[in-house]
Prior knowledge:
Blueprint: H1 2-11, H2 16-28, H3 30-52, H4 56-61, H5 63-90, H6 107-119, H7 122-131, H8 143-174, H9 179-202
Amino acid sequence: MGFLAAALLVALTPGANNLLALRHGMARGFLASMTGVCGRLVAFAVLVLAVVAGLGPLLSASEWALTAIKWAGVAYLLYLGVTILWTSFRQGGGRPLDPPTDDRPPLNSLARKEFWVAITNPKAILVFTAFVPQFVTPAHGSVTAQLATLGAAYLAAEATAAAVFAAAGTAMGAIRLSRRAHRRLDRATGGVLLGMAGVLAAESA
């Protein structure tokens, strides 16, 4: 129970992935947002497998690997932020609030965004290489089995936290905000993503 509570607190921390879940919930609804979250969970499952396979210490100790991942994350956050800002400024006041269903990006594109934001986040890597292993007790049995169990439990916590943000976004979307309000929210989202890219770039790997 102690691990689950701690994992949920970590997962609920506002970040780029949770911001995407919120935005996708506003624009596409709860189910679409959670479909996107599947991409994040796949990325985290890859990290869990790496830790279970014993690659965690090697990855966390590799300065060049963390640096490469960090700058890939910076680049992708910049791409998402600029794309969202560009779209919000391109849409004039006379355009409809939501694009026709056929013009919306497919659901797998939401999953791709969540996947790449998660897999290129050095902090996510540290969650699985530094945070999760702290709860392993060798006296309680196989370390590998415990890492796999704890990793699965963290994925459940992450899915729960994502559902909270997706539901909040869906509730906000149901208010039927004006086009101007939606554009302002999109610009705020884009600005936050650019800010996150700047913070990540300024941090040491």
